[in-house]
Amino acid sequence: MVPQASPASAWSALETIADHPLRALGSPAPAARKRKAAAPDEHAADIERGLARRDPLTVRPRVSSRVLCAVFGVLMIAISFGAWWIAVRTEDGQSYEDMVFSGFHDSLPSWASALVAPFISRNITSIAGHPLNFTVIVSALLIVVAAVVMLVRKRWWLVGQSAVFAALCFASTYLKGVLPRPFIINTVSQPANSAPSGHTMLAVVAGVLLLFAVPRGCRAWMALVGAAYALVIGLSVIAGAWHRPVDVVMSLLLAGGFALLAMAFTRTSGMDAPGKRASSPSVQIVGTVMITAGVLCCCYAAYIMWQIEPGLSLSASWASVGAHVSTFAMIAGVSSLVFGMLLAMRQITASPLSRAGLVGAPPAPPKKKR
Fold first, then answer.
1. What backbone torsions phi and psi does residue 63 show, to the nearest 5 degrees?
2. Are 359 and 14 a contacting pair, CB within 8 Å?
3. What is the mean pLDDT of residues 284-302?
4. Around Cβ 173, how many Cβ atoms within 10 Å?
5. Most exposed: 15, 41, 129, 324, by fewest CB within 10 Å?
């Protein structure tokens, strides 16, 4: 049986456990203090169950939010394999990627070349036989920063979610040795399968973990940083002739899908503290702009691919220019779309608003005057 405590003592005990400022609710009764001292873990669980009965949104997000995360996550993963199938198992797909592979670096504008140049450089050093380049070093530092932020904020459930997400992404890189690449045309690129891109996957993991770790006020900024960093790394691995376009697209969508599936299991310390939840104009604006821009860029890239399709089998020079432009637009669009979706879903799972008092209740509409 759950101990029956007054609302004041229950909320004040939650304040002591979760360290959030609900001072106006009063101090716990002496009996509650004694029970906490005797069995703090059991009392904390009792308080959590009591709050779940009072308002389930203090413990876990809405069912609709979790279902949306699962649906969009599975959809992203399915689209990633669909893109791989078109690029690898069709003649036009292999011709398109061959055009991009052979001259993408020279087609980049000067500002883009300057951005990707540090990440194209060869390995800086190695640890235990594993080569380290600038991409690995920067990504590792960002992951460490994200982990430290989670630990300092005592987001223990979020640490577990992030570990599972990172493990899924790491395991998916082994698809590179499993997925086939049938011989359809004689290409200048390597004949073996190279999807998904491990460096792009690492960059997306770093950006996603930062988005997970930071509080509500910083989420929009981290989504922009993550999308920009993933874009630069995605362009660099193509410009360095390490990967084909579908390798980057597949990595972005797989990592985004795994992140959404991880968010479907958000609860307790993986969420914002009750009493600190609020709607975020920055998340709404930035998320909307990123998703819209991502969709438009992807549609623009698809339109260019449709226009150059007749010239792919002929290796026409005009088709080569279109292939390079569409690749840039496609990588930028997928990066923006993935991180825009993650930003929106992170907000609604981490900070669900409620009408049950002092938990970030949305403002009531004004009453009409009679």
1. -60, -40
2. no
3. 98
4. 18
5. 129
CA 276 – CA 51 distance, rounded (Å): 16
**What is the pTM (predicted TM-score) of this model?**
0.83
130 backbone dihedrals φ, ψ, rounded to 5°: -95, 120
CA–CA separation, 149 and 147 (whole Å): 5
**Residue carrying structure tokens 């992807």:** 298
Mean pLDDT of the chain: 85
Beta bridge partners of 360: none
Q: Which helix (H) or strand (E) holds 288?
A: helix 281-312
CB 14 within 8 A of CB 51: yes
User: Which range is least confidently modeled, 17-31, 220-234, 331-345?
Assistant: 17-31
Number of Cβ atoms within 10 Å of the Cβ of 34: 11
Structure token digits, residue 89: 């198992």
Structure-block tokens of residue 306: 């449709």
3-state secondary structure of 132: strand
**Residue 196 to residues 83, 227, 249, 250, Cα–Cα distance (Å):** 11, 18, 8, 6
d(CA 344, CA 339): 9
How do strand 125-127 and strand 130-132 relate by DSSP bridges?
Answer: antiparallel
**Burial, 362: exposed, middle or buried (Cβ in 10 Å; 0-12, 13-18, 19+)?**
exposed
Check whether 211 has a pLDDT greater than 90: yes
Alpha carbon distance 257, 70 (integer Å):
8
DSSP string, 220-272: HHHHHHHHHHHHHHHHHHHHTTS--HHHHHHHHHHHHHHHHHHHTT--GGGSP
DSSP readout, 116-127?
A: HHHHHS---EEE
- Tens digits of per-residue pLDDT, 121-138? 776 766 666 678 899 999
Euclidean distance between CA atoms 139 and 152, whole angstroms:
20
Q: What is the pLDDT of residue 353?
A: 83
Both structure tokens of 57: 């949104």
Instruction: Check: CB of residue 47 under 8 Å from CB of residue 13.
Output: yes
DSSP state letter for 24: G
* Cα 115 from Cα 137, distance rounded (Å): 16
Q: Supply the DSSP symbol for 217.
A: G
User: 120 versus 336: which is more confidently predicted?
Assistant: 336
